[in-house]
Amino acid sequence: MDAIVLLKEDHKVVEKLFKKFEKAGDKAYKDKRKLVDRIIFELTTHTYIEEEIFYPAARKRVPETTDHVLESVEEHHVVVWMLNELKNLDPKDERFDAKVTVLMENVRHHVEEEEKEWFPQVRKSMGRKQLQELGERMEKAKTDAPASPLAVKSAKQ
Ligand SMILES: [Fe+2]
Ligand SMILES: [Fe+2]
Question: Full-prediction pTM beyond 0.85?
């Protein structure tokens, strides 16, 4: 699969989970816990494959994306720390919904920048074959993704 198509599919999966969270009732604590656990899993896996494979390849083969890549890593940094906090936060805690709301704002902004600002640059400069090859590597790497959001590279300072 084409690398950018794969990453956009992941973005869609996460957006669907966000919409479900927004529709969940205030007191639907069990549902919200399950949804947030899935969001943590999906975003940790996605962040991992981007940082291990896509971002370094973009930087190397399309050097003009470097500033975008570096900014994206800082955005991941904030997101993975929020995911880690949510892992252990009780859905009944008054800060739970607020934290998920800010997480969603951050991720939506990040996805918009990837899809509108710099993935198109990568698509333009990389051939179809390279994108296919990257996509295949990322698909395989998903199974190596860590369970803990703090195990991805950007979690470090
Ligand atoms: Fe990203
Ligand atoms: Fe992404």
Answer: yes
